[in-house]
Every structure is written in structure tokens, then in C-alpha cells.
Design brief:
It is built from 5 helices and 36 strands.
């Protein structure tokens, strides 16, 4: 799916640029004539419909690697997403497994499309939003985050952007791995994996993780601990019977039990004997044929796939089943890519892509106040063209037509990107413009909650967004800085009004600046940092809740060369500025409250005591910061964890 060239970097890549203050930060650490950069170039699979070299992409992107995840020792994917520019992560209670939302560039949580190996994870029964609370950071090869409206490629749910998670695949031979850890709040985690391959004919990778924690009280006013148990199994197997033919299967299964608390007007979250039992199933099968493999100027690919996701949630109160939610998504896709190399003329190359897909979202809900069985179907047609000239000028254009059910109108979205690489100064300019769409959710249309009435007359939310940035590399690529300005306008924003939802008249205005930095200070010392300024107002001039104006992060990773690079130390700082949230009085009238800013300091270390046997430990929230990400919900204080990791090849 992707290719790495050059030496791998343990850093987070993002949009990178703007300069100055570099010589002040790294005065004499390296010179331009010294060692070549650790990272030359890599392929990104999400920014276009075909894998594309990073320097040719006009959209704002961030790539997180498996090494980033391992060095920072994160438990949940949401923990590593906090380091990405302009991603606002909010957890309803800082325990384990509780509802976790991710917003991109000030958009809504259900404006973020989440994919796993090409499978859409957004839950139709959960407002078409994905809850990151159950997603463990195990067996992940990389995470790609594309910011800005991507509906022209991916349809509804992608107004803010796309998060694509790619799991590990096997390589030649057999590899086994296992790890176990424990720590604060009665936390225990064990995982193991098997991967391998045989004669370029087959590769496979399977992994299982068990996580348990007594947790904390997720209610700020409570004292009862809310525990979490999570069992996750995932894997993939890929066959290559012919040189030009691949087919495979990938899947993930999650079983999670999370204790939650109640909610009372005038107080907020309160202790209660509530529990949510979650069952998730995700799967995909695909087949790909590559024609004209031997040709130097023409390639033609054809791929078909079928995806399926199923999110089930059973909610219990005082051990009694109160409600059942089941959201399912199925999608069938045909895609063809035509690649033409005309490098003899202006060093040009062309990529033509056509995609056709049929998608169905379905919801079943049973409770004392609702009995819903509804579905929506969409047929889509997508075209994209990429052009490269002189190995420095890259443009793309895409358009998508969504033929929806009669519940709302058909939509057309489009996108254009440009990336210009000025090799003589190691400068890259990148910009993108796109339109986005978010169809009303099944919940908003039909309603399946107490004291809520659906609105079948809702229109789709629509957006227009653009960004422009400059990426500058210094010291022969050892330092990279990227600065991007973004602007987003959303019309028909769906918002709550009394016991139903309406389209808000007027435009929601969102803009901001993203800054991301990567530095290979020494061969064994790497730094990454990001800062975001975000300004947002709805059509009434009111700031959107749970979007901090200032977000920043910094990470320093040091490998101990004196110990033969067997030891590693990682220090991370995450800052989130003041933000607003909703509070409710005893009669559930809504008001706005302000949540204080906070800073989290995490330290992680590891040491390989024997060949392929590693001890590791970390301290989270070392400053024991007290904070809230959602009003009236508590967050964890200082915590420590440690464990052992083993990898080996038996054959």
C-alpha cells in the first residue's frame, strides 16, 4: 500500500514550514554538509485515490509511524492524535474507554471520517461519528491524517478531514511478539501477534490485545470507580497468486465493557451504576489486477472491494438492559487507475482514476422510548486527475456525484490541490481547495432518544474550505518547518433546537494557522512540535464549544548510543488552551461555561536487556494536572505503568 524510501524517521511528519529561530534553537548541532537526512520521501495512501509521494500532495497532511507509537507508549489511538496540529480531542471522563471525540480544524466530531485499512468506521447509530474510546493503539503501522474538506474523494462525513489507520502486514518468514504491562488504577494489558510470509505468494499478520482497568470516577463530583475491559482482535491475510494479481482479507473485532455515570441537570455528571457493552466488527475483502506491468509508460489497475462495519451498543442501568443500538455500514466499490508516463515531454506524468461505489447505512434501535429500523443508500461516482510536470509542479482535481435516497438532495463536491517544489532552496508551496458535505444522520432525521424528535426536513451541511502553506527544509533536510493557513465556511450547520435539530441559517466561519516542526538534531536525538491557532464562530457569532483557540505539543526522543542504542527516552508535552462547553440547569436550559487550560507532561523510557527482550515504563501527567476536557467529567491524575516486550523469529 505504501513505500518508504531512505532511512526511516521516528518523527511525526506534518505540513511543515515557515522559518527563522532555527539557528537560535539549534545553533551548532549540524551543518548542511554533514550526514544526509534521515527521511527522504515516502508514499501517502489517503491524500489521493492512489498512493502518492508526499512532496506531490497539496493537502495538509500528518503521518504518524509505528515507531512514534512505540516510543511514546500510548495506549489509545486518541493519545497520539493529540500531537497532531489542529486536532481537538475531548474525552467524556478521563477514565478508560469513555466516549472520545476528535474534531479537525474546528469542525464537528461527525465531520471527521475515520477509516481502518479502507473500512469506514463511523457509526450510523452514533450520529455518524466514530468513538475513539475503544480503539487501542496496537498493531498499527501508520496513521495518516488529511485535513480540509475531502468529500470529493470520500463523500459525506469528511468536511473536516480524514483519519486513516493502517495496520501492520507480515514479511518473509515467521515473526512472533508479545508484551505485558501493568500500572496505576489497577491497569493491566497483554497483547501478542503472529505475522509472516512465504515466497512472495502470501503475507499475513494477526494480533490480539486484552486491556483491563479499575479506572477512576469519570464524574467530577463522584467517587465510584468506572472500570473498562477491552478485547481486540485484528488481522489481515493477502495472497499474490500471480505477479499482477492480489487479493486479500482484513478485519477487526472489538468487545468492550465500560462503566459510565449518569447526568443530572444543574450538576452534570454524577455517580450511577451504568454500563455500556460494545461489540464492533469491521471487515474488507478486495481483489486487484495490474495490467501492462512490463510497460515503461503505461500502467492500468482495476480493483474491486466489499467493506462492512457493525457497531453494537447495549446500555445497562442498575444491571438492567435499557437500550440497544446497532449501526451498520456496507460498501461495494470498483476503482480503476490509469497511469501514463510522458516524461520525454516536460517530465510529465498523468494519473486518471475513476471510482464507483454503493453504500448503505442502517440503524436498529430498541428501547423503552424508541423502536427504529431505518436505512439510507447512496450511489457515488468519482473522478480524479493528477498531473506532474518537471518533477516539481504537481496539481490534481477531483469531482464526486452522490445520488442519495429521496430523503435529501443529490450532491456534487469537488477538490483541487497544488504542490510546487523549489528544489534549489528546499522550499515547497502547497495549497488545496475543496467543497464538503455532511448528510443528516439517521438520528437527526428520525430520532431515537428520549425527549428528542427527528426532523426529516433537514438539509445536508455544506462547506467550502481552502488552505495554503509553505514548507521549508534546513540543514540538508535535518530540520523541516511547515506553516499553513486554513479557512472553512459551513452552511446549513445542523444544531440542536429544543427537542429536535434544525439547519442554522447563515454561515459558520472557521479559520486558523497550523505550525509543525520536525528536527533530527543529532543522529540519536529527534524533536517534533506543533502549534495551532483556531478561531471559529457560528452564524450567530458564538464560539463553537470544545474547540480550544490554542493547542500545542512537543516531543523529544533520545536513543542512548552509549548503550548501543538499546535504551530510549521520550519526553512529551501537550498543551490545550481554554475552551467552552455546555452546562445545563435543573430544567435542562443550556448555558456556556469556560474550561481552564492545561499542560500534560509524559515521560517514557525503554531498555533492551537481551536481544529482542525489552523493558519499558512511562509516567503520564507527571505534573499531576487537574483538568476537564468535557464539563463535569474528571480526568486522570499522575499515573505510572511498566512492562516487558518480546519479539522473535522461531524459524
Amino acid at each position: 500500500m505504501f513505500i518508504l524510501t531512505g532511512r526511516s524517521s521516528p518523527t511525526i511528519l506534518s505540513i511543515r514550514n515557515t522559518a527563522v529561530l532555527l539557528t537560535a534553537v539549534f545553533p551548532c548541532s549540524v551543518t548542511a554538509s554533514e550526514r544526509p537526512p534521515k527521511q527522504l520521501e515516502r508514499m501517502v495512501v489517503t491524500a489521493h485515490l492512489v498512493p502518492t509521494p508526499e512532496t506531490r500532495i497539496g493537502s495538509a497532511i500528518t503521518v504518524i509511524t509505528a515507531q512514534d507509537i512505540e516510543q511514546q507508549q500510548v495506549t489509545y489511538v486518541s493519545d497520539i492524535l493529540r500531537t497532531i496540529p489542529v486536532l481537538a480531542v475531548n474525552q467524556s471522563g478521563g477514565g478508560f474507554g469513555s466516549l472520545t471525540q476528535v474534531r479537525i480544524r474546528g469542525a464537528e466530531g461527525n465531520h471527521t471520517l475515520v477509516r481502518l485499512n479502507g473500512i469506514e468506521l463511523n457509526d450510523p447509530s452514533g450520529g455518524s461519528e466514530f468513538n475513539f474510546g475503544n480503539l487501542l493503539a496496537e498493531n498499527i503501522e501508520r496513521i495518516e491524517v488529511i485535513r480540509g474538506a475531502q468529500s470529493a474523494l470520500y463523500g459525506s462525513d469528511a468536511i473536516g478531514g480524514v483519519i486513516n489507520i493502517i495496520t501492520k502486514r507480515g514479511s518473509q518468514g515467521i515473526q512472533l511478539n508479545a508484551q505485558i504491562e501493568g500500572g496505576s488504577f489497577g491497569t493491566y494489558k497483554a497483547s501478542g501477534g503472529l505475522s509472516g510470509g512465504w515466497k512472495d505468494k502470501i503475507d499475513f499478520a494477526f494480533n490480539a490485545s486484552q486491556f483491563e482497568s479499575e479506572g477512576i470516577s469519570i464524574s467530577e463530583s463522584g467517587s465510584e470507580k468506572d472500570d473498562n475491559r477491552n478485547l481486540t482482535v485484528d488481522g489481515n491475510i493477502n495472497f499474490h497468486p500471480l505477479k499482477n494479481w492480489d487479493f486479500g482479507v482484513t478485519g477487526k473485532w472489538v468487545r468492550s465493557n465500560t462503566e459510565t455515570d449518569g447526568f443530572q441537570g444543574g450538576i452534570g455528571s454524577i455517580d450511577a451504576d451504568n454500563e455500556t457493552e460494545t461489540r464492533q466488527k469491521f471487515g474488507r475483502v478486495f481483489s486487484k489486477i495490474r495490467l501492462f506491468e512490463e510497460s515503461e509508460w503505461l500502467k492500468w489497475d482495476h480493483m474491486i472491494s466489499a467493506n462492512y462495519s457493525d457497531n453494537k451498543r447495549d446500555n445497562f442501568r442498575n444491571k438492567s438492559l435499557g437500550s440497544e443500538f446497532d449501526g451498520r455500514n456496507s460498501k461495494y466499490t470498483y476503482q480503476t487507475n490509469l497511469l501514463i508516463d510522458t516524461s520525454s515531454f516536460a517530465q510529465s506524468h498523468h494519473t486518471f482514476t475513476f471510482l464507483m461505489e454503493h453504500e448503505k447505512d442502517a440503524v436498529k434501535v430498541k428501547s423503552s422510548f424508541s423502536d427504529v429500523d431505518r436505512s439510507i443508500q447512496t450511489t457515488s461516482y468519482v473522478g480524479e486527475y493528477q498531473l506532474g510536470l518537471f518533477d516539481r509542479f504537481f496539481i490534481s482535481g477531483g469531482i464526486r456525484l452522490d445520488e442519495n435516497d429521496d430523503l435529501f438532495e443529490d450532491t456534487t463536491t469537488y477538490r483541487a490541490t497544488l504542490s510546487y517544489l523549489h528544489k534549489e532552496t528546499d522550499t515547497r508551496l502547497h495549497t488545496s481547495y475543496g467543497t464538503g458535505v455532511k448528510n443528516p444522520t439517521l438520528f437527526e432525521l428520525f430520532g431515537f432518544a428520549a425527549n428528542y424528535q427527528g426532523n426529516p426536513d433537514l438539509q445536508s451541511e455544506e462547506s467550502q474550505s481552502f488552505d495554503v502553506g509553505i514548507e521549508q527544509q534546513f540543514l540538508n533536510g535535518r530540520v523541516s518547518l511547515d506553516t499553513t493557513y486554513y479557512n472553512n465556511r459551513i452552511e446549513n450547520l445542523i444544531t440542536g433546537s429544543g427537542i429536535t435539530s434544525i439547519n442554522q441559517k447563515g454561515r459558520t466561519h472557521i479559520q486558523g494557522i497550523e505550525v509543525a516542526m520536525r528536527a533530527n538534531i543529532l543522529d540519536n536525538l529527534d524533536f517534533t512540535g506543533s502549534y495551532t491557532w483556531n478561531s471559529n464562530k457560528d452564524a450567530n457569532g458564538v464560539s463553537l464549544v470544545r474547540r480550544a483557540k490554542h493547542i500545542a505539543s512537543a516531543n523529544l526522543n533520545y536513543a542512548f548510543q552509549a548503550l548501543g542504542n538499546k535504551g530510549n527516552l521520550n519526553v512529551g508535552v501537550k498543551y490545550k488552551g481554554k475552551q467552552t462547553d455546555f452546562a445545563f440547569d435543573p430544567f435542562f436550559n443550556r448555558s456556556i461555561v469556560e474550561l481552564e487550560d492545561y499542560t500534560l507532561l509524559n515521560v517514557a523510557a525503554s531498555y533492551e536487556i537481551y536481544d529482542q527482550v525489552e523493558l519499558f515504563a512511562r509516567v503520564e501527567n507527571l505534573l499531576d494536572e487537574h483538568y476537564q476536557e468535557v464539563y463535569s467529567y474528571a480526568a486522570k491524575g499522575i499515573a505510572g505503568y511498566g512492562g516487558i516486550r518480546i519479539t522473535f523469529e522461531p524459524f
